[in-house]
Every structure is written in structure tokens, then in C-alpha cells.
Amino acid sequence: MTGHFVSLVFTMLLVGAAGGVINYFTLSTRHTSDTGLLARCIMLGVLMTFLVPFVLSVFGSTLIVDSEGSPANLLNYVAICLAIAISPRFFLANVSDSVLSETRVTSTKVDMLQYQLKQLQEELLPLIDTETEDDNLTEMSMGNDPDPNELDTTSSKVLKTLGCGRFIYRSLQGLCREADTDESTMVKTLGFLTLKSLAGRIGGRKGVRWYITERGRKLIEIRV
């Protein structure tokens, strides 16, 4: 019986090491050898193999005793040990796939949030600049006030519509409707106002929108 016990222990060590090697070559994706990973896989395979007697005793199996003097039962025991030794591979593979899937989803959500944050920042930046007081505003404004005579009637009307409307960011259709101007003229006028730094444009989630700049507001105040 002692000899049979020693042979079983040796068999479990050998089968556990073999299962660890199988797990290593299955899990390792590197071309270079990883000695640390190989050692961990072998140790895990051996530990899992030594759980086989406990599992068999829980289920009331007498396979260990019956394997003495019976090559068929011994082979069955070896097969069970090998199956238990390589079982962590399936668990680790499933966990790895799940983690990779969650990582991809999280990465996609982060990229989407960054894109939305960038869009929101671009939309709010003109408003922040308009509502933020500059320490050097007085010095900068000297000699740089817009000339009320540089605008024609249509440009003045469009600029006033931009500055006096309900919304900060105006659509082309809304401006045309309020200023009673056709779309072609409105586009040319907005381009002229943008060139003069009296208006600006921004591309948001709802499309291109137009807004009045601080210089444009100052010009409206002067004309009033």
C-alpha cells in the first residue's frame, strides 16, 4: 500500500506539472519564454491535482483504492488528475476575455465622453470669453473700438439679430427668419462679420451655429 501511495503522489506531481505546462503554452501569447509564468502554471497544476483525492472522497468514489493493481483504474485516475490540472485554463481564459471585453467597452465610453466634453468646451468657450472680465480690458480697448460706419444696413441688422436674440448660438435658418433675409445674403453677411471679428461660428451637435463676439456687442452699444 505504501508503494502504491508513493506511485500515486509521483503520478499526481508529474500530471500536475504536465497540466501546468499545457496551461502555460495556452495562456502565453509572447514569443519569448516567461519563466515566472511557467513556474506559476506548474505550481497551480500540481496544487489542483492534489485536490483530486478530496473531490473523489466527497463523492464517495473508491477509484484510488481500486487503482492499485488495475491499470485501467489507474489510467482513469490519471485522466481525472490531468483534467483537473488544466481546468484553470478555461477559467482564466473566460475571465481574460471578459476583462478584455469590459476594457474595450469602457475605452469606447471614455472616448465618447472625451469627444462630448471637447464639443461642450468648444460651445461654451465663446460664452466664457464674453462673460469673463479681462484685467487689461481698458488698455486693450483704447484705439481698438469698432467703427460704427464700417457696416452697411444689412450687416448691422444681422449683427443686431445675433446680439438681441433669445439664443446665444443661432442657426442660419433662425437668423434668416428674424432678419428677413435670404440664405445667400445671410451667409455672405455672416462671413463678413466673422472676418471683422464681430461674429463667430462653431460646429456643435446640432450643426453649425453663429454667435456675436465681445467686439460685436461693443459695436451694437456704440450704434445705440
Describe, in short, the structure shown.
This protein is mainly alpha-helical and 224 residues long. It is built from ten helices and two strands, in the order H-H-H-H-H-H-H-H-H-E-E-H.
SSE layout and pairing:
Blueprint: H1 2-27, H2 35-49, H3 52-58, H4 63-66, H5 71-131, H6 137-141, H7 153-164, H8 172-179, H9 183-195, E1 199-204, E2 207-212, H10 214-223
Antiparallel strand pairs: 1-2
Helix pairs in contact: 1-2, 1-5, 2-5, 7-9
Outline the structure in words.
- The protein starts with a helix and ends with a helix.
- The protein has two domains: 2-107, no CATH class; 145-223, Winged helix-like DNA-binding domain superfamily/Winged helix DNA-binding domain (Arc Repressor Mutant, subunit A, Orthogonal Bundle), CATH 1.10.10.10.
- Helix 1 (2-27) crosses helix 2, helix 2 (35-49) packs across helix 5 and helix 7 (153-164) packs across helix 9 (183-195).
- Helices cover 72% and strands 5% of the residues.
- The radius of gyration is 39 Å and the shape is rod-shaped.
- It has a two-stranded antiparallel ribbon with strand order 1-2.
- The protein contains ten helices and two strands.
- The longest helix is centred in the middle third of the chain and has 61 residues, at 71-131.
* Strand composition percent: 5-15%
What is the terminal-to-terminal distance? Answer: 110 Å
Return the string of H and E elements. Answer: HHHHHHHHHEEH
- Strand segment tally: 2
Helix count?
A: 10
Overall outline: rod-shaped
Category by helix and strand content: mainly alpha
Poorly predicted runs of 5 or more residues: 137-143
Q: Describe the sheet with the most strands.
A: 2 strands, antiparallel
What is the average per-residue confidence, as pLDDT, rounded to a whole number?
76
| Rounded radius of gyration (Å) | 39 Å
The helix fraction, in percent, is over 70%
Q: Strand arrangement, largest sheet? A: 1-2
Number of domains: 2
What assembly state would you assign to the polypeptide chains in this entry?
Answer: single chain
